Amino acid sequence: MAVRAIEWVGNETGLLRLLDQTRLPTEIEFVDCRTVPQVIEAIKMLRVRGAPAIGVSAAYGIVLAAHAATGDAESFRQLMREADEALFASRPTAVNLGWALKEMGQVIRDVASRPQEERLRALLDRAREIESEDQEMCMAMGRHGGPLLDHAKNVLTHCNAGALATAGEGTALAVIFEGARRNPGLHVYADETRPLWQGARLTAWELVQNNVPCTVICDNMAASLMKGRRIDAVVVGADRITANGDVANKIGTYSVAVLARYHGIPFYVAAPSSTFDFELASGDLIPIEQRAAGEVAEPYGVRLAPKEAGVFNPAFDVTPAELVTGIVTEKGVISPVNADAIRAMLR
């Protein structure tokens, strides 16, 4: 994809430029972030989204915080601590956010007593490394996962887990793109992904940009396609995976996994090792973000439901490990999916 979703512009005193994904697919606009509150606003409003992309953006947000933290070591630590806490609270489900902030926190501890110029240089270097590492992990996931689609004609994906959600080619879409390179006849069904249509607006846009044949379907059409033997595999991303292999991903993923199991269709999850949360034993412990009622009842300012009606709008659901055929990571494919197999692959 020629358009970069995340880009640091300039040197140590530069800025973070984000592709505003709320404007896609009809408009390509960018948001320039020069402060931590601007990065937080971009994360909360889904201008930048996808667990890896949020992590990379938060790392650069720490660099922006350091621009204003020019005092002695103690005041520097305090201001950076406040920035870390604010960024961490911006979206509670995606674990890559916390992982990236921990990585940046180690640098903060190492450089707190150094001159400001050295602080900024070290923080920017680590943020760039996190971005580069994510790009490399995306390529590796494509290499490991692409062969899973060698004999597939049609693959289904839910939400968006491509270059817009990462610093590289994506997680689920990296697998699909490599699958399409190996298997040129591959066709993709993209769930629209209500209530914000990330599949219709973003995934379909990325597939078209990369010349991969695709068809957008309503979320409630997947079962009919599966019954008609028109889907050969499902590939999705993840925002958090617990120690036992339970997967948190965009709301609606769980229902797709249940349908896939019933119809005997392999259900794959693609995620880097930074998405695994070994501190949580199971998906029951994952905090699920609740979003505004207007996203469901009044999308884009058009009232679809009575004002008197209540709205339930969780951003994510949890798919139990037993419904997951395999998890594609940068280190290989974990299958079967259980705590022992995950530890053997990642630890």
UniProtKB/TrEMBL annotation:
Per the UniProt entry, what is one GO biological process? Answer: L-methionine salvage from methylthioadenosine
Q: Which residues bind substrate?
A: R49, G50, A51, R91, Q198, N249, K250
**Which GO molecular function, any one, fits this protein according to its record?**
S-methyl-5-thioribose-1-phosphate isomerase activity
Per the UniProt record, which EC number(s) apply here? 5.3.1.23
Q: In which pathway does it act?
A: Amino-acid biosynthesis; L-methionine biosynthesis via salvage pathway; L-methionine from S-methyl-5-thio-alpha-D-ribose 1-phosphate: step 1/6
Look up keyword Isomerase and say if it applies: yes
Q: Does the keyword Zinc apply?
A: no
Keywords attached to this entry: Amino-acid biosynthesis, Isomerase, Methionine biosynthesis
Gene of this entry: mtnA
Enzyme class comes to isomerase
Full protein name: Methylthioribose-1-phosphate isomerase
Highest rank taxon of the organism: Bacteria
Q: Where is the active site?
A: D239
* InterPro entries assigned to the protein according to its UniProt record, in alphabetical order: IF-2B-related, IF-M1Pi, IF_2B-like_C, Initiation_fac_2B_a/b/d, M1Pi_N, NagB/RpiA_transferase-like
The reaction(s) catalysed by this protein are:
5-(methylsulfanyl)-alpha-D-ribose 1-phosphate = 5-(methylsulfanyl)-D-ribulose 1-phosphate
Query: Which residues bear the site annotation Transition state stabilizer?
Result: C159
Biological role: Catalyzes the interconversion of methylthioribose-1-phosphate (MTR-1-P) into methylthioribulose-1-phosphate (MTRu-1-P).
Q: Which family does it belong to?
A: Belongs to the EIF-2B alpha/beta/delta subunits family. MtnA subfamily.
Give the organism, scientific name: Caulifigura coniformis
* Alphabetical list of Pfam families matching this protein: IF-2B
